[in-house]
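Example record

One chain of 171 residues, shown exactly as stored in the release files.
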Amino acid sequence: MAQMGSVSNFSARVLLRPWCLNDADALFLLASDAKVACDAGFPAHVDINDSRRVIREILTAPECYAIVLREMNVVVGCIQLFTERERSVYEVDCLEIGYWLGRPYWGVGVMTEAVAMICRHCFQSRLFKASTIVAKVEHDNIASKRVLEKSGFALERNGERSEYRIGRENS
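Predicted structure tokens for this chain:
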């Protein structure tokens, strides 16, 4: 199933596009940061081969995108729509969103733009049946909670992992 192309999924400063092996150096630079990796829930990359493997085996999944700063043409993070089931992201009523951003780009609104873009893509595209997107965030990840709140997500459950939700009608 085709992903959204990189033509219509951009803002003035952010572009979402599929990952490619040429992104391995940029991915390694970002994903070798232990804090970024820990917050995102993946092991920090030890060498460039880790990044190449992750691109080939994980980041090429449907609806998984590199977040690129357009002005500098540099990969700064990752965002993805997914489902825990073995079903296609295009066939379920509720999707989950996951994302991470390289530390140099924290706090400047890049992720808020990317989240808004991918939600708009999901709810306006005929590719998806989903009427809801859910995000699960570690309790102490205040910045990620703020991104979701700015993007229109509502807190559904607070706890060790907080759960936020947005529906087609709220986006």
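Notes: The first strand starts at residue 14 and ends at 18.
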